[in-house]
Specification:
Layout lengths: L7 H11 L2 E6 L3 H16 L3 E2 L7 E6 L5 H19 L4 E6 L5 H10 L5 E3 L7 H10 L6 E3 L18 E5 L1 E2 L10 H5 L3 E2 L2 H13 L4 E5 L16 H9 L6 E5 L8 H9 L6 E3 L7 H6 L6 H14 L4 E8 L6 H14 L3 E6 L17 H24 L5 E9 L6 E5 L5 E5 L8 E9 L4 E5 L3
Helix pairs in contact: 9-11, 11-12, 12-13
The structure holds S-adenosyl-L-homocysteine, iron/sulfur cluster and FE3-S4 cluster (F3S).
Amino acid sequence: MRFVNSYQNKIKEIVEEKKLTYFIDTMGCQMNENDSLKYKGILESMGFKESTVQKANLILFNTCCVRENAENTLFGRLGFLKHRKLKEDDVYIVVVGCMTQQKHILDKIKTSYKFVDIVLGTGSMRVFPEKLYNVLFSNKKEIEYIENDNEIEEDVPIIYDDKYKASVSIIYGCNNFCSYCIVPYVRGRERSRKPEDIINDITKLAKEGYKEIMLLGQNVNSYGNDFKEKYTFTDLLKDIEKIDGIEVIRFMSPHPKDFKYDLIELIKNSKKIARQIHLPLQSGSTRILKEMNRKYSKEDYLNIANKLKMADPEISLSTDIIVGFPGETEEDFKETLDVVKKVGFDQIYMFIYSKREGTRAARMEDKVTNEEKVERLERLKKLYEENLPLLNKKMIGKTYKVLVEGKSKTNENLYTGRTSQNKVVIFEADDSLIGKMVDIKIDSEHLWYLKGTIENR
Ligand code: SAH
Ligand code: SF4
Ligand code: F3S
């Protein structure tokens, strides 16, 4: 469905007259970050200017519910805004995103946070202007609400924060129902965007000077499973590779169960697909993986990791791991540590298991104590941080292509960028090189970043 804003001019008139401003507070994953850039695009197309949470007229919360603590954060922040809403004119509060798809949250907003003006579920952006119009132009007091209706929304204006890197969603929703995870309940079933819509967006971005693209989806390699004609994630990658100007292609997240040989071959032979693959492990224990409904074993995972390293030893791997899943024993956890040792991840996003009502795991008996969970997280972190310098050291003396992103935040005289492996590199350069690809020889490693020198200047 195409996004058409028939309220744009009417809203713009009042926004410009009153000089209304906005602030977006984003929680959660890159998918939410990407949605927030679209809300920014919609708001700015209607004349809103960006401001701070203390001053903005319209405050939009884009929420996440993948783990428990987010709820307290949202209600804390809403409570804080109540004073502004009571004291000041022209304060509008909008809550969107995953959390609003949960009935108990919606009920709580309706009963205890009645001052919220608009609540939108996931994938309901196209009704935002209409709901905003109702709030701005009428005295209606009930909350304007709409839930996810599983539509794909195209042509939504988007404003990126970065000039050279852009994220593009290729598939929405999730069909996997991993037993711990709330996402399939709040984001709906898998819907792939049409290849031509994606290609058009990326071609436009390339013409505007964007060099690096991050393709987004809860499970990017199930892209196209919902098409009548066969067109898969690998087909899409091949077509994106042909776009002139795009030099680096990244994607997240692929699911190990769908990581097939053709994708490994494509990555091996590609000049543009980044030498970094995010491959969520979740657990190294085959028994726990089964309980998690992940549909691969420890050996399957190690097999893919080995094949990727064999395809190109320069490929670095990053992952997500959950510790303390219900019933996880010390032996299970040691299996996870074993995979971490064997693979050597360059980045690990570590999470303590968080019970999500409505999921299958929420009904499992949770024998792991909180102390054990925290202790396992610490051990995992320690192992990871011990390994990292060894991986970094392998890069010293080698030359990598780096997109110069800008000045380093900590040192005025230095510039920063990332290698294809997604490693931060700091080096001497000048402003004329910002946005260009340069060859950098790595000189030293500093745990979270590398230092290097530009070659052939
Ligand atoms: N679709 C992606 C992940 C989306 S959620 C994938 O399958 O890889 C991001 C990460 O949050 C997950 O990879 C998982 O590690 C973590 N996560 C999801 N549900 C969780 C829960 N209930 N408790 C703790 N971590 C969770
Ligand atoms: Fe959640 Fe699993 Fe879907 Fe990822 S693949 S979003 S972890 S259900
Ligand atoms: Fe959170 Fe929704 Fe992403 S639950 S992790 S913002 S898909």
